[in-house]
Each structure stands twice: as C-alpha cells, then as structure tokens.
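Checklist before submission:
- one chain only
- standard amino acids only
- sequence pasted in full

Submission:
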Amino acid sequence: MRKIVAIILGTAVLLAAAPLVEPGALAEGNQTRRAAKPDPDTVRGTITDWNDGAKTFKVRDESGQEVSLVWDDGTKIHGTARVGETVMVKHKKDKDGRMVAKVIKVGADRKE
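Returned file contents:
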C-alpha cells in the first residue's frame, strides 16, 4: 500500500511540475535558444560627437536617437574613439542622472 501511495505522489509531483518546464527543453539535442533581450544599460551605434576635454560624447543608436554620455577615469576604452566609429557602450546612471560609460568598445559589431 505504501508503495502505491509513493508512486501516486511521485506521479502527481511530476505532473504538477510539467508546466514549469519549457516545451522541448528535455528533448535530447535541443538547441533552441531564446532571443536575447536588449540590455537597457547598453548603447550600440555611431559616435556623432567626442570631446576629450569635457569627457563627453554622443552616440546615435540603431533607432536614430542620439544619446549623450560621459566617461571618467574608471572607464575602459577598447580602441580609438572618434566621430564616425561604431561603438558598443555599457553604462550606468550616476546620482545626477548622467549616463557614465563603464566600457566603450570601438569598432564593435552591433549584434555583439
């Protein structure tokens, strides 16, 4: 009798958990991947303005919007930044609401 109860409870747990598993996730060799969500702290586009003295720059993103950013001594810049270059910028907002670049990758592929 205990064995039957254990089997019934085990089956109930598996059936209850089944909706939590992505369809096909347990299939052998399943290579399905979800599309990556855009990262709100990343800007990809073309540099339209660069000011070394003020440590400011602007990037026109893929939607055509121009985004103003700043950088500081902690910013890692990979490559030589100049107007017209394609970039990928990871940033964070500071307490004043400015977008401070943490990483600038010059010449970065936009689909990176």
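Reviewer check: The radius of gyration is 24 Å.
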